[in-house]
């Protein structure tokens, strides 16, 4: 025996265990993907659709990280980031810090409008 399951589809299994999703998890995930997974007749089809939706989410997160983190691409491939990528990361960190400091300064200005509470909460 190879230790791999011989029934079901590979997408239903993770580390040799079948993934079962609660109705709440299925409902919440389908709201974000605008897909009616609860309408599927078989539970196996629901789980397969959930795996696909979660995979799409993971791929989107990885894509965003590739765009925003200059060091991510090299480290994902097991390489040392280049000097240029390291400098880009340092510049990005400095700019983020400067923007945070500017935001703190403008938040404390006297003329800045504060969020208004409804009359009944005052």
Automatic annotation (TrEMBL):
Region (Disordered): 1-37, 50-122
Native organism taxonomy: Eukaryota, Fungi, Dikarya, Ascomycota, Pezizomycotina
Protein name (record): Uncharacterized protein
Start-end of Basic and acidic residues biased regions: 18-31, 97-122
Biased segments, Polar residues type: 1-10, 76-85
């Amino acid at each position: 025996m190879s230790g791999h399951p011989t029934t079901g589809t590979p997408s239903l299994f993770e580390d040799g265990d079948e993934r079962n999703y609660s109705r709440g998890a299925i409902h919440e995930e389908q709201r974000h993907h605008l897909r009616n997974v609860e309408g599927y007749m078989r539970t196996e089809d629901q789980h397969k659709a959930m795996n696909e939706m979660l995979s799409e989410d993971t791929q989107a997160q990885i894509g965003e990280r590739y765009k925003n983190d200059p060091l991510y691409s090299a480290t994902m491939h097991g390489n040392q980031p280049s000097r240029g990528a390291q400098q880009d990361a340092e510049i990005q960190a400095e700019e983020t810090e400067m923007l945070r400091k500017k935001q703190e300064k403008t938040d404390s200005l006297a003329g800045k409008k504060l969020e208004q509470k409804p009359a009944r909460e005052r």
